[in-house]
Amino acid sequence: MNESISVPLLDLVPQFQSLQAELEEAVARVVRSQVFILGPEVEAFEKECAEYCRSRFALGVSSGTDALLLALMSLDIGRDDEVITTPYTFFATAGSISRVGAKPVFVDIEPDTFNMDVSQVGARITQRTKALMPVHLYGQCVKMPALQKLAHTANIPIIEDAAQAIGAEDSGTRAGNFGAVGCFSFFPSKNLGAFGDAGLVTTNDETLYGRLKKLRVHGGFERYYHDEIGGNFRIDALQAAVLRIKLRALDSWSAGREKNAEIYRRLFIEAGLAEQGNVLPNDSAPVALPAPSANGRHVYNQFVIRAVNRDALQKYLGEHRVQTAIYYPVPLHLQACFRDLGYKTGDFPQAELAAQQTLALPIFPELSMKQLETVVGRISEFFHKQ
Ligand SMILES: *Cc1c(COP(=O)(O)O)cnc(C)c1O
């Protein structure tokens, strides 16, 4: 094994260098204009994003978290309302539900995709359920046709947390178009990353679009006249200008991620570490691979394996300069801040098992073949397979 090869979980420098001149020019253009808040860059960005997401409307916002908050506010979700979501996601999903005063109601996840198990949603719907909030985790869509059917029957809107899933598809529909509002994040580590915080909401409903737009600027179309209480949820013109440049390359980056995922699958199986279709790891196949998208496009914001002895494996990889991450070590139903919700260990066994077994490997598009081989080679060494 070549001692000199290190593999970071994410390195944004090569991506930046590939577009450096254009990005610097975009930033300079905004600086020269001195138009920093909304304005033409933001409008152009929104138009291009709507096109990319195949949505009628898109609105740039301050972050993915604010996109979720704004979506909930635009549907008047608040005190005494319930929103059904997954306990196995980034904190902001359930955090935003609580911030509007509503109650997150969790359902367990599917073991193969890590996504909300749609078959468990129906049993959790009550008179108080005011929205369903699926999360397209790691870049793969929740089984949306089934969820849409439930939502339609119960007449409950869907808010998609598509923060990790720009460009992902299920059954020919792009993330952000399955429900009332789609929420995206441009946090730097997402597939489309800003130079700081930024986000987006999409909708195909013109009335809702108007409401979202108004709530983005403190709830008033006319400055200093407020017919409701919104917030400052604006995206910076600087971020919009940067994202416009990067958006053009997004599909090639997503293709690079998909290609790396395929290489990983082949290498893990060739090394005897994983078996096709094995959902859980075991002693003879100590690594389980993430499920490829059965019915659409997985954009691999993360490539997340399950491993026997995960914590020791991560430590070993770290010592050999292969950087990995654990998303997420504590499911949301067991977070201290949600103690009042009354959940306990054992309530969502699949989410709890995932929290113990999952490990995110480097998957960014600029990884070299040597780096991918190094990751699998080090894991192989750990399990004494070579
Ligand atoms: C990143 C992320 C968010 C929050 O986005 P920010 O832009 O960091 O506020 C919300 N939900 C999920 C699933 C995410 O991955």
What key attributes describe this structure?
globular, binds pyridoxal-5'-phosphate, 386 residues
Structure commentary:
By secondary structure, this protein is of the alpha/beta class. The protein contains twelve helices and 13 strands. The strands form four sheets. A four-stranded mixed sheet has the order 1-9-8-5. A three-stranded parallel sheet has the order 3-2-4, with helices on one face. Helix 5 (92-99) links the parallel strand 2 and strand 3. It is globular, with a radius of gyration of 21 Å. Bound molecules: pyridoxal-5'-phosphate (PLP). The site of pyridoxal-5'-phosphate has 15 residues, from helix 4 and helix 5. Residues 63-65, 89-90, 92-93, 135, 161, 163-164, 185, 187, 197, 199 line the site of pyridoxal-5'-phosphate.
In short:
The protein has a 4-stranded mixed sheet. Strands 3-2-4 form a 3-stranded parallel sheet, covered by helices on one side. The protein has a 3-stranded antiparallel sheet with strand order 7-6-11, with no helix packed on it. The protein is built from 12 helices and 13 strands. The chain is α/β, with parallel strands linked by helices and 386 residues long.
